[in-house]
Amino acid sequence: MGAENSINISLVAEKLFSVGGGYNVTNAMMTTWIIMFLLVALSFLITRKLTLVPGYLQSIGEIIVEGLWNLFESVMHDKTKIFFPLLSTYFIYIISLNWVELLPGVGTIGLEKLEEGHKVFIPMFRPGTADLNTTLALALIAVVLIQYYGLKMLGASYLKKFFNFKNPIMFFVGLLDLLSEFTKIISFSFRLFGNIFAGDVLLTVIAFLMPLFAPLPFLGLELFVGFIQAVVFSMLTSVFLSVATTKTEH
After folding, report:
1. Looking at the domain assignment, is residue 7 inside a domain?
2. How many C-beta atoms lie closer than 10 Å to residue 99's C-beta?
3. Is residue 177 within 8 Å of residue 159, measured between CB atoms?
4. d(C-alpha 15, C-alpha 168), whole Å
5. Which residues pair with 119 in a beta bridge?
6. 3-class DSSP state for residue 24?
7. Is the dihedral of CA 49, 54, 60, 63 positive or negative?
8. What span, in angstroms and rounded, lies between the C-alpha atoms of 37 and 32?
9. Residue 197: which of 107, 129, 103 has the closest Cα?
10. What domain range includes position 219?
11. Which of 198, 213, 150, 207 is closest to 177 using CA atoms?
């Protein structure tokens, strides 16, 4: 959908340009690259001069790390030190991609292209988690790592919960458990994508119809939704990791 003086809402991330013989760069990829660069730069600034008397940036970093540690420790307990780098990276990365939709210019600054005789507005920036490719990649990484750590920490006994040939009922339950491992990919990716994409569309429509003060309440709502979705994704990952690395009898 798109015409002059109208908004363009696309379920997929819009192509901005191509590089390297046909490699398409989308607005979601552009936003994701910027966020990754900023996170790496911020991490460097916080950790380059660590002192016993922390400065402003180090204090903020320590508060975030301590808060995340306490959050995941409530689920992982003694396994927190093993999985904390993964889980905290998930949380910080996802919440950054979620909250980028609240920044001025995201969804409103872009290019006009002519498609089928109509001018279509293509936003320059789109939240990375409003692209199903991003959320699907995050989900695949999480599920693969869950299986990897389950096998690494429990060995062949990890497979017993999926393949139990001694009891027909437990064999059927094991197959259901195996199927549920694949459905985690769908639930992870579509939950995050659906909530952020819906919020992005909502903010775009409200800003188009009533650009002055009407979007303010919705900005607060999306601030909350972005935080909750980051918590849900990282906490579910921690729960699944905890279950996968715990012996069945426990």
Report:
1. no
2. 20
3. no
4. 51
5. 114
6. strand
7. positive
8. 9
9. 129
10. 15-244
11. 150
Report residue 237: phi and psi, to 5°.
-60, -40
How close are the terminal C-alpha atoms of the chain, in Å?
54
In the block, residue with structure tokens 């429509």: 205
- Is the residue at 117 inside a domain? yes
Q: How far apart are CA 100 and CA 245, in angstroms?
A: 34
Residue 72 in contact with residue 64, Cβ under 8 Å? Answer: no
What is the per-residue pLDDT for 224?
Answer: 92
**104 or 226, greater pLDDT:** 226
| Distance of alpha carbon 60 from the chain centroid | 22
Longest dimension (CA), the chain: 67
Domain annotation covers residue 9: no
Query: Which amino acid is present at 155?
Result: G
Per the structure, the count of domains in the chain is: 1
Residue 1 lies in a domain: no
Mean pLDDT of the chain: 85
The predicted model scores a pTM of 0.86
Q: What percent of the chain has pLDDT over 70?
A: 92
- The backbone torsions φ and ψ at residue 17, rounded to the nearest 5 degrees and listed phi first, read -160, 175
Band of residue 3 on the pLDDT scale cut at 50, 70, 90: very low
